[in-house]
Every structure is written in structure tokens, then in C-alpha cells.
Batch of 3 targets.
Target 1
Amino acid sequence: MLKHCVALLIALLFSNGSTYAQLSDQEMTRRADSLIAQMTVEEKLGQLNQVAGDLSNFKRVAGILPVQFQQIREGKIGSMLMVYGADLTRKAQEAAMQSRLKIPVLFGFDVIHGYRTTFPIPLAESCAWDVELAERTARMAATEAAAAGIHWTFAPMVDIARDPRWGRVIEGAGEDPYLGSLIAAARVRGFQGADLSADNTILACVKHFVAYGAAEGGRDYNTVDVSERTLREIYFPPFKAAIDAGAATLMTSFNEISGTPATLSRFLMTDVLRGEWNFKGMVVSDWESINESRVHGAAKTNDDAAVLAINAGVDMDMEGELYVNLAKEVRAGKVSDAVLNQAVRRVLLAKFKLGLFDDPFRYCNAEREKALVLNPAHRALAREAAQKSIVLLKNDKNMLPLRKDLKTLAVIGGLAESKRDMLGEWEMVGRPEDAVSVLDGIKKQVSDKTTVIYSKGYEATRGKESLSKAGFVEAIKAAKKSDAVVVVVGETADMTGEAHSRASLDLPGVQEDLIKELHTLNKPMVVVLTNGRPLSIVWTAEKVPAIVEAWHLGIEAGNAIADVLFGDVNPSGKLTMTFPRSVGQIPIYYNHKNTGRPINPQNPNDRYKSRYIDLDNTPLYPFGYGLSYSSFEYKNLRVSQREFRGSESVTITVDVTNNSTVAGEEVVQLYVRDDVASVTRPVKELKGFKKLRIGGGETKQAVFTISAKDLMFLDRAFKPTMEAGTFTVFVGGNSAQTLDEKLEYLP
Ligand code: GLC
């Protein structure tokens, strides 16, 4: 009796017209369950079914097939992807309102680094070491996407990547779990905002769970076999950070891990996600990855695969169309009502939180779409993000910045005039015509007295590396006539991204040959890299006086690159992935173990050490590396106390002096090594960073505070622990050049 009175009281409480989205989780769950109680098995399975729209020309116009409209009316489609636009999504919702239970459709899309306003690829943006920027660009992308009828982005991709052969390094934040975790959480906050029921916030989807970036050979979709320790110390942290930041959904990864396809892994999708991390959100498989578990050899039939996946904890089936046909297996008891209802509940709760049950059309506003998509404020942010993502790799004799009033400036390279490639490989609805090429950006900024001569030198054609040197003659001629040469080289967008792994990290095709020929002219020369992964540009790094890492920077690439080349912006980016000297060094990353036979830098030829007989162990450019037009000097590293115990914290201070006359920003990095522990620890681990703006001739202090909780690690039983002993503290402008001090933690 009391229970009914309470239920009645709750009903009365909420009869004041509060919306679904503002209900407590408990009340939302109650309402979801009352809806589930009305659903047939087929309708439940329909909610777990996500299908792509008409992909025949989706990058230009989104479409939904007639049969799909009918399936929506029959309650067989719970979510769609690759469908966008206020008008089209409205039509789909109208069809949903004709279904028996009128459950709205959930629209997902790959808003990876911008919707129509394309920002720098995430790997580039991570080089800004600017967590607040990561949140801002995600927020702006969500605003545009939501205005276009999208409820859910399949981002942030938080896969730690230590292998640049893997094309998908473009989507993440590099090799470090600490920085990757901060950026993951920031992007979740940006996409989801403070209120998911607002009409400019969308569900985030942290992906790809897990260790997708550890694919053997750097070959996409390949086998992953890492220890549980490496999983927990390196690959898990950004996912945990994203979930702690409130990520509403998570996506499985294509790869198997230690013998089980991630999509079928109960250890991952239930024990870790739900048991250890208390994740309440919805899990979606990656594209047909449930079906692919048959190909992995982990399931005999599609039905077997689907039963294994839903019982492992995967709630929604992306594009596999397996869950939607699982009624027989459900009725045969292979999927319990509890498991089925739990998956449906998570999907419905996502829709409740977005406010779709209050107003299925709240995201379908064509006027808002027109006003918000690709607007000037978004373009301005795209330029700021691009500027901050640029990493100055070399600038001998202050070759840069270039004067704007040079008499003649040669711009060489097929990539210099490319707009498409500046958008990166996840451009989706980003349009080349929206982008500013490097050539355009330079032309806009030089004086009207300057003549810019452009010559391709090499073809930057999608789909194949140009091996023709036919353009060299004209390029050399152009360079001969010029006062300075800007050579733009790197990768076309389709050499990066999904299913675009490379076995080589060299500049593609004939690009390095062109640089060598131009170099013989002894002209002031700058190489601008537009690429999506670390490249082993050893010859260029040695011979060319100025090198700018400019990645694929999005629609404002050309303007931002010109801002840096001509000095309107002082570059401040720092690499978040190690640049190898050779692909033969992979995996190479800064937070490596010491081994029992580390190379002796003072005696690198000492034979019986962990070394190559044909190459130096060190990277071409280390993690955290990046120069500036300023010149920063680190001095006077000091600690507030040498010994600490319990919860005491230690203050670490360093003076950073800008010895130039140019104000600039410096990312001061703090690393720590646990010298001896019950489990071997990396030689360095990033534990903090500060981005300081320091005026010419000025000295500023970077101050860090650390305590035992910052230094904990997983003991042999994977339990967080802190052990007595000495620690080495490193502070510097990159992971290789640091000042260091000792600390001791006492029991
Ligand atoms: C792709 C990608 C995933 C993406 C999904 C939808 O295969 O692996 O990251 O979100 O399919 O496009």
C-alpha cells in the first residue's frame, strides 16, 4: 500500500510538467521500464538496431532509403548514422511518430574534429597542450552538429598510439595517458556541455574500447596482444577519464585482445566498464564488428556472434543488423529478458536525457542550422586552434619568420594548393571549398610588392603516391627566381586515418628528392609538413634550416600557417607523439622502461646494451618537443622539501627565461621517475605541464605541486599503491632536455 502511495506521490510531483530530461535518473529509469513493459521483443530489438542512411552520396547530401523509413515506422530502427540535416532528421522523426510506441530515432555522426567547420585533426590539436581549447572546439562542433539534427557524435577517440604506421593516430591525442586523459575529459565536456537536454549539446562516445592503437605492425584492425598491465597503465586511463567526465556512450574496437574480439569481451564490456568503473551509459559496437567476430573465428554464426555480444554487454549493433533479427534466440532463452531489457533501457535513457521524449523535433530546426553552421565565430576558433597546433621543429639562424615584403617568394608542392587535404581524412561534411590552402594563406599575407611563384613540383593526388619528377624542372626554375622558398610536403589526407596504415614513415613519393634538388640552390628554404603522423624525415631534419610541422589543420590551415611563417603568431606547439628516426625503431615512445641493459649515452657503442648496430636509439624528435621564435632557458629547479611522507605535497619550481626579444608561450613539462619499485616503472612519466606566456627578456616561474597520490602506480595485483623510495623529478621544454632533482618518499 505504502509503495503505491509513494508512486502516486511521485507521479503527482512530476505532474507539474517537468520534462523527461529533468527527471532524476531513478524516475527516468522507472519511465523507461514502464515503456519497456509495453514493448514486444521485436520492438526491443529494434531499439538496439543502428543503421546508416543512404550512403550513395552522403558527403554531399544525406539520404534515408524508403525501406528505412518503413522500418522506422515499424519500430525496427532505434538509431541511424551518417544522416544529417534538420529537414531530413525531421522527416525521420515524423516516421518514428507513426510507430506504435512513438520512440524517437537517435542520430549519430562522426563529428571527429568539427562538423562543417573543420578544426585541426585531433593529433594536431593535442600539440597545443591546451585542454581548454580542446573543450572549446568540441563545444563549437557540438553546436553545429546539434543544429544539423545530430544527437550523438562518435568522439572523442582516445586510443593511445605509440605506432605512427597506424593511420588512426590522427584521431587521438598521441602517446601519453596523462595528457590523453585530460584531453579526453575535456572533449566529453565540450560535446555534452552542462545539460544534455539543451538543444546544442550532444552525446559523446568514447572510443575505441580498447587498445586499438596497439595493432601489431601498426596495421589497422590487426591483432592486439598486450599485457593486462599495459592495458591498465596505458590504454585504459583516457577511457576512465572520459567516463568520469560523464561520457554518455562508448564504442567497442575492431581488434581482438589476447584472444577475444573486444566486441565480445565480457571482461571489458561488463567486468571493467560496469564492475570497476560503474559506467552507466550505452555501449555501441563499431561498424559490423559483431559480425566480424565470426571472421575472427570467435563465433560460428551471426546469431552466435550477436548472442555473445549482447551478453558481453554491447547494447547497440552498428550497421550489423544482427540484433534486429535476434527474436528467435531471445525466445530460445539465449538472451535473458534482463540482458535485453538492460540494453534497451540504456538506449531509451540516452534518448530521455537528450529530451527527445519531450520533443522529438528539438534538434530539427532549419533556421538554427543555417545560422550556426560554418559561422564566422567558428571559423575564427578554427584559425586559433590551427595556430596553436603548429610545431616548429627547426629554425636555424632564425630563418623564420619570413619577411612579408620579400621581392619574390616561391611556394612549391602539390599539397600547397590543396584544400581537400587540409581537412584531414575525417572531413565528413567538411568541404574543400571552405578551406584556405597554404598557397592562398601565403598570398593573402605577403605585401602587394611581393611576387609569389607557385610550382607543384610533385602531384598530391589522392589514392596514389606521385613518383613523377616531371614537375621538378619548373619548381627549380621558380626557386631560382625567388628570394626564399617554402616547400610544402607531407601526406594527402587519404594516406592517413582509418584503413590507411603505412609501412614507411618517409615522405611519400618523390618529395624528399625534390627537397634535395631545391636544397642545392642554397636559397633560404622552409619545409612545411602537412601530414597526419610522425614522419622519419632524417635528411630534411639535418639539411633544411627551417621546418614547420603543420599537420592537417582544417579549414583555416593556410591562414594559420601563414600567420606562423610571417611571424604574426609565435609557434608554441609541442609534439604529443615521438618522431622516429626510422620505422625500424617502432615502437618508440618516451615513457619506456629502462631495461637491464640501457644504452650508455656516454658510450653508445658499448656493445652489450639494448641498441641497434645501425642506428642511434634516440628519436628524431622526442615527445613534448617544439621550438619557438623565442628562446627559453630553464634554470634553478628546486623542490620545497627533499623528503615527503603520507599526504604531504612537494612544491617544484623552475625559472624559465625568455632570452629573446619576442614574447612567446612555452609548455613547461613535469616528468617523474619512480627509481625503484615492486613493479618496474617508466624512465619518465608526464605528471604535469604549464603553458606560460613569457615576454622578451622576462623570467617566469613554473610551479608544480605533487604528492603521493600523483605518484601511485598499480602493484603486482593491479591495486593502486605508493611505496617508499626515491623519485627523480624532471622539468623541461620537452621529454629529453630536462633539469632534474631527487625526492624521497618515506613510509
Ligand atoms: C568506423 C570507425 C568508427 C566510426 C564508425 C562510424 O568504422 O571505426 O570510429 O565512428 O565506423 O563511422
Target 2
Amino acid sequence: MSISIDLSSPEARDAARPASSGSAKPSLVGLTREELGRALAEAGVPERQVKMRVQQLWHWLYVRGVSDFADMRNISKDLRATLAGHFTVARPEVVEEQISGDGTRKWLFRFPSRGAGKPVEIETVYIPEEGRGTLCISSQVGCTLTCSFCHTGTQKLVRNLTAEEILAQLLTARDRLGDFPDRDTPDGAIVPAEGRKVSNIVMMGMGEPLYNFEEVKKALLIASDGDGLSLSKRRITLSTSGVVPEIYRTGEEIGVMLAISLHAVRDDLRDMLVPINKKYPLKELMDACRAYPGLSNARRITFEYVMLRDVNDSIADAKELVRLLRGIPAKINLIPFNPWPGTNYQCSEWSTIEKFADYINAAGYASPIRTPRGRDILAACGQLKSESERLKKSERLALEAMMIAGHGEA
Ligand code: SAH
Ligand code: SF4
């Protein structure tokens, strides 16, 4: 059973809508410290105060999680009014919140239009587990790549998300989970990092993060900033289908953990499943992985491998996988294929997945099988697709029937 809170009625939307959303004012969220300083100076903050104001704002936005200038108590009323006249720090509109029977949550956020474009909607998923909670963040609306087994790949790219919109997913999720300190915490107090609901983030939602490198970089550097959101870079994982030049840049300029959507161990098959392989074949991809900075047994690359029945799930594939990864500190994440209406692929038999996992385990690799989460709310890997192409009722019913028929284990 899942719970869905539909916020699409006008009344419900009004209740959920942050006071200043929809305004055309630029947001202060997602700016680097330098950009924030420049914005404040342009709004009339005296030059000698800028550095201190940047520090104060950083604390309010990223430690305390406030979304209204009125809550920034150590900033004078006059300055708060000036800031509110020029900028916004409001959250996006939450169109829908769904809570799966297994505790997974999925939000549909709406971001205002940028320039001539229309407003866009994107999905973010929260997965609570024993001892940690992971937020799965989107980097683009749709995707230009067309991996043949991925639902997002069937949707055209609408646009890149900005750093503000990438961070807004984290900030709004933390609001909804009660993961920011309450208003009564004394100003300037250090808030403990322990016991956080969102302890990890993965760039594994919609889109290819390395096709939106600059905005993703800005957002992740802010998420890992020690005076703000303070997420350790070891708890941030960026997943890519294999955009080789930007893998090198990720290592040098961002320094988060890397996950590679591998899915096939031969170029001919990977060309079909993950077409970017035609541009950056396996040899180049593996070279970039070997060169990724800071790898060790404690800092391994995750290789994602979707289990497709009779396509890539033989023991010969497992053998080749072990050979391919030799010398790279790696863990292999086996993902049971999540079906979607219109796909020709099927998930491998459970026993086949187990045999595959046993083989690579015996070769010394951790190979957890990713338990499908939130399937009842279409929150599982590769099932994300935004409102702009929301499923018709008939498609949803077909999907449910597929899951009951073939994937009762979920
Ligand atoms: N574009 C990036 C990140 C998003 S996809 C990438 O491709 O890495 C997150 C993971 O889910 C990827 O490994 C992707 O290949 C996988 N995935 C996509 N569709 C899937 C499906 N239908 N079932 C299972 N996993 C899927
Ligand atoms: Fe895009 Fe990743 Fe889906 Fe491929 S798997 S289509 S890169 S979102």
C-alpha cells in the first residue's frame, strides 16, 4: 500500500506553496560564496559588510535551512526587507508527495520557467535504510541519452537543472523529513551531523549529471561545504553512463564518489544498451576509472549492472566482468531490471541473479543485489519520469500487472 498526497487541487497547492514562490526574483540558493557576495553588493550591501553577510546567509540557508528572509534573526529588519525586495530563498512547489509501503518517498517538484521555457517538473526519491537515508537527486529534466532499458531515456531532454534546482531537491526533502534544526535552536548553534535523515546523496535520478557538469559541480561543492550542509564527499555518489572527459574532471574538480552504469562487458552489447559507448568505448571508460583519484579499498568505484534476462546475465558475462575490473577498487551493484510499459526487456530470474552474484563474490568483489524500493510508487531505478509525461491510467495498470506477474519478490 502506498499513500499519495495529491497537491494538484488549487486549495492544496495554496497550502503547500511557499509564500514567495513563482516570483521572478533570482534565488540566492546555489550561488558560490563569490557570487553571493557580488549579488549582495549589487543590492546595496556596503562593501565592508559583504563578507560577514555572506557568512550569515550561508548559515541560514544551509545549516538552518530557512526558506524565508524573515527567519534570519541576526540580520536587521531593514536589510531583510532589502534582500526580500531583490531576491528569493523560497522552496519550489511540491506538486505531489508519495509514500511507499516500504517507507520510500517520492516528490514531484515544480520549478518555474527559465527564460522562454515552460515550468518543469522533476522527481526526487528518498530511501530510508537501517542506519542511513539516501536521497536520489535528478540533474536534468529528461535525458539526451537513450539507454534502451531506461524509462527516462524515452523522454526527450527538456533542460538542464540549475545548481539552485539541484540543491532545492535536497533542501526541500530535508524540510519534509524534519531534517533541519527547529526554529528554537539558538542562532549560530552548531547542529550535529549525527542522526540525519538524509545522510547520503546519489546523483542517480533523471538525467546524465556529466552532461550538466558546471551546475552539478556547483551544487555538490555546496552540499559538501563544511560550513553549510556538510555532507562528506564520501557520502555523495555521482552516477554516469560514461562521459569519459568529465569523469576526469569529476575526480579533479568535485572529488565525490563515482558510480558507472556499466551494464555490459562487451562493446557490441554496450553499444546497444548504453549508446554513449559508441563515443567512449569500454577501454577508454576503464582507463578513466583506473585514473580516478583517491581510489583505495575504502574508496571504491561502484559499477552498476542491470540484470536483463538472456541479454547480459550469463556466467560468461560475469567472468568477463571480473576480468574487466581487475586492478580497480570496485564494488558491483546488481540491479534487478525494473519494468516499464512498452519495454521489451525482462528482469533476469532471481536464481540467475544469485548465481551471477555468487560468481563475482567468489572473485572477491562485494556484489550487493539492489533490492527494488518504492516500486509501488514508480520510484525505482529507471522508472522516474516527470509529470510532463505522466503515465496514463491504462499504462499504470499494465505496469502493476507486470510487477505482480513477474516480480512478486519486490
Ligand atoms: N544517467 C545516469 C544516472 C541516472 S540512472 C546514469 O545512467 O548513470 C541511475 C541508474 O539506474 C543507472 O545505473 C541506470 O542505468 C539504472 N537504470 C535505468 N533504468 C533502469 C531500469 N529500468 N531498471 C533498473 N535500473 C535502471
Ligand atoms: Fe540517461 Fe542514465 Fe537513463 Fe541512460 S540510464 S537514458 S544516461 S538517465
Target 3
Amino acid sequence: MQGLMQGQPLLISSLISFADRYHGGTEIVSRTIEGPIHRYSYRDAHKRARRLANALRRLGVQEADRIGTLAWNGFRHFEIYYAVSGMGAVCHTINPRLFPEQIAYIANHAEDRYVFFDLTFAPLVAKLRPHCPGVKGWVAMTDRAHLPKELPDALCFEELVAAESDDFDWPELDEDAASSLCYTSGTTGNPKGVLYSHRSTVLHSYGAALPDAMKLSAQDVVLPVVPMFHANAWGLAYACPLVGAKLVFPGAALDGKSVYELFEGEKVTFSGGVPTVWLALLQYMAEGNRRFSTLKRTVIGGSACPPAMIRAFEQDHGVEVLHAWGMTEMSPLGTVCQLKAVHQGKSLDDRLAVKSKQGRAIFGVELKIVDSAGKELPWDGKAFGDLMVRGPWIAKGYFKGEGGDPLRGGWFPTGDVATIDEEGYIQITDRSKDVIKSGGEWISSIELENVAVAHPAVAEAAVIGVRHPKWDERPLLVVQKKPGAAVTREELLAYYQDKVAKWWIPDDVVFVEALPHTATGKLLKTKLRQDFETHKLPTG
Ligand code: ADP
């Protein structure tokens, strides 16, 4: 017997329509690339998204066509998200920090018909154009006065929008239709496209907003530092309209000072970003003895958030950290670390110990860990294995079947190694390719990095496995010191005593000016492994 409930499809356009109808006056504030702060409301955004949808139709954009973006977090990018997906085309966000060859590969592989770009990326677009013959037009996200000189024939976003009426009815699409596309960075091999649907996006937005996930509401002022060009700004550009939260877009200025000033100026209550961004912010805060006056919570993920950073936020600033884990293939949220009732009344240290884990699954995400034979491992917080996931906002394959069928028995292998404890909290030990294999045992590079960054002289640390004649691999600690700080190799090694098992302590320490990062702000360990391939360990 079938239920007798209405079957409206879950569509991205309904998110912006809802925000317009019920939170029409709520603000969206953007720091623009041109300079001034831009302010308007969900109602205005919805109007302009409809005009843009008309403009896209006039340009000949059809359902399922891919429309690329090379853009920061800002109001025009937000309008593109809704206009493109809403009309039935596919919003393809491209990470502008990738190498130009990779971007050209991605735009060609996706068969982007138009590409929208922020002014910052005009020089990049000038370079890309000859390599992307399939792109019919490049649209500069600005007005006529600011059109880039190097691209005199670029289309002008503001002119396209101004020429149209806001009379546009969002089509009733199939909820399983493709809505957006994002390529994984692919530290090895070509990037692969993750193709989201309307249904997966709306379900993910519900999940993201839940009290035990990001706990978003119409009382929040949300500043996504995490870029809209990577993994949908962790879903914030969708989840905020769903709850009617005020949105604050930081544009290109992601340094500590700029972010802090925007937090204070706009009374931001919630933010999200990768640890490297918060590192810069916390440093800026410490320098001037500054305080947050409105910030309540921030979600941190993308790579492991060191416990020292969680402590700094919670203890020194009274800001709750929500450690989260996910991946592009998961829309991206998988787990968020929110405490349970059983943790109430525990000491700060005990609570911080839980909070340094990556959290527990949001309803909609199923998790398990398996050994190398695929056998499920116990949830005891000790056994670690390959983390597998499944659920309605998790990819079942890549765009154009790239890389073959990724699933194993219906589960998506994340490439991460993790433990799961009795309460269901996962802890990521490593990416499987970063685990250090010493004498047949595994050493967690993340745990060793977490210890190092708790040292007052260390700004950032990476631990990689280096070849060893007896043990196969041994850990090497690569450190970037804080400006003006002094610490020796011996002091750092001594710092590990009693914090980790003796045989985990790195064999050597190297100091570097700066650590390399990927286009998404993670430590670029492939580069470090190359750089230190022939490093002679004193123990070797
Ligand atoms: P890519 O950078 O390859 O596009 P994603 O941005 O999708 O990939 O990153 C997903 C990966 O990032 C995860 O598989 C995991 O290794 C890592 N990651 C994400 N969040 C965390 C976290 N909180 N702790 C540790 N690792 C994390």
C-alpha cells in the first residue's frame, strides 16, 4: 500500500523561494572584489537569480548544460548557484587555486558551456581561454565599469541581469536530476567529477542544519570562510536559506584581519573553514589581544583540527568548535562532533578529548570500518580500519564513469583510516596513503602532528614516513616555526615523551620556511614525501 502524501520533488529552487517568502528581509552581505561591501536581502537575491535564469535561457543554456564558475564567496556566486541549478542546468564550481592545466582539463572534461569568473581570475581566464574551445562565453562577474582590460569581449554579469525581467517560474524538475558538479582535487591522477542532484543537495541541507550537526537557525549570522568553489562551502550556501540565516560572504580577503573585522562588523555567530584559515585568525587575535564579541560556534574540518586549536577557541575565546569530517564525494558532510548527554558534567579536558574526534554520523550517513579483507571491525575506539560510507548524499560513481565503479558492496571507500568508539564517534587516524608503516605496525601521522602543534613554538607541522632500512618507514617531523620563535630538534623530540608510545616518536625533525598545501588547504604530503625521499634518518 502506498502512502497518501504529496510528492513535491526536492529542488534547490525551493530553498531560495522559501528564503524569499519567509525570510525575505534577511540580509546577505558580501565583501566585493571591486571594493565596497554589498548588502541586499534574500528577496533581492531571489529576484536577481530569476533574472539570471532568464539571461541563461537567452544565451541558449539548456537543461543539463554545465556552467562553470571561478569565483570567491559572494552574492553573484550565490545567484549563480540558484539560477543555474534552479533552471535545470548544472552549476560547476571550479577551484581557482588549481594549476591552469588542471582547470582547463576540468572545464573541458565537464564540457562547460559558459564560465563565470570573478575579476581576480581575469588573468587566469586569459590564459585558459585558448585551451577551452568548447566554452561559448566567459562572463565577468562585475559591472561594465570594471570589465577586465585583458578580456575586452567578456560578457558582463550586471548587463546580462539588467536586461532581463524577474518573471521566471522555476521548472518542476526531476529531483534526481543533476544540479551541480565539483571535481575532487586528485592529489594523484586526474581530478574526478562528483555530480550532485537536487534531491541529494536538499537532503544534505536538512542534515547540515540539524541541532547535532551545524545547529543553524534564523537567529544565526553565518560567514562561510570555506569556499563555494569547493564542496559547496560545506553546504552552507544551501542550508542558510533553508533556515533563513543571514549570510556574510568574505570575498577574496581571507587573512586574519579581514575575517575578524567582518565577524565583528556583521555580528557573525557561526563560521566554518579549514584549520589553516583559523591558524591565521587565531594568530591575529593573539597579537592584538582581540576578542570575539558575537561568534558562538565554528565548524572546522577538511583536515584534522588539532586539539590545541580546539582548546584555544573554547578556553580562550568561549567559541564552540564543531570538528567535522567529510569529503567532496559526500556533499561533503559525514560527521560532526557534538557532545551527547553522557558528556555533560565532564571536565573540560574530557570534553576536549571527545571534541578532538571527528564526531558522529548525521542521520543519512551510514559508517563502518573494515579490515583489509573487508570484515567489519568493532566500535571500541581502538580497532582501526578503512572507513566506508553510504547514504543518499554520497556519490555512487564519478562523472562520465571516470575511474570505474568506486563502490565496494554498495559502500563508498573513503580512503581514510579511522576508529569508531562505543558512542559512535569516529576518529580519523590518517588518509590510508599517509599512514606510516613501521615494522608492520601503523603510526598515525595526524596524532603526531597534533602533538607538535601544541608546542608553543610551532606554527604548523607535518609528519611523513621516510624509508628506513630496518623498520620500512619511520616518522619524520617537518615543522614551520611561529614567527620569531625558537625551538631545537632535541626539544621537540623530548616534547613527545609521555605523549605517545615510545616507538611512535619521530626519528628526526626538519625545519622549513613554509609547508606546502593543496588547493583546498590540506598539507601536501606527496610533495613533502618527494622533498624528503632521500632524507637520511640518524637512526637509519
Ligand atoms: P580533496 O581535497 O581530495 O578534494 P576533499 O576536500 O573531499 O578532498 O577532502 C576529503 C578528505 O579530507 C577526507 O577523506 C579526509 O582525508 C580529509 N578530512 C576532511 N575532514 C577531516 C577531518 N576533520 N579530520 C581529518 N581529515 C579530514
